Amino acid sequence: MKHFLFLFFSFGLISSVKADSLCTLTSEVEPDVTITLKYTGSGGGIGTLNYKNQPSLGFYVGIWNGYGGQYYTARSYSPELLKEEKTYQERTKNTKEIRTGPFINFVGNQLGRATSKEDRKSGKLRALMPSLSQGYYYSIPFTEQGQYGRQKLSKEMKTIIDATEGFFVNSGGCRKFFPYGWD
User: What is the percent of the chain where pLDDT is above 70?
Assistant: First the structure.
């Protein structure tokens, strides 16, 4: 019985640690669109942009060298993108870059990096990626007869475009991705 309780407790602890290591950012305007990231260190991570909990794009967040500030990179999705044991070149070999751009931190409606300490107010951690919607739109091929494409968007395509034009809010586990935020 003691062994059973120990195993039960151990598995519960392992699953809660694993769940806590994931960050979920949810679109404020389209809650069916989320970004799920695993923290890899130095304000960065690897994951996916999801529609209804299914991966649509590969997604990376990191900190620019030199000046600072954060960036995101969106790529066409492949399960290989999430295999941390592989090199970046191996993971991205069969994918296409969609867009790289700024990953801008906000606390509530205040810009995380530029708000003076005297003016800071508490608020939700939010991220804005102003060029993501344009990059995603232009990654969609032209419409072929009878199929979805840039001139005839599917519901998923339209929802992702709408979501990526707005803010994503921390829905859990994302504090490490906001080095320019405050609590």
Answer: 89
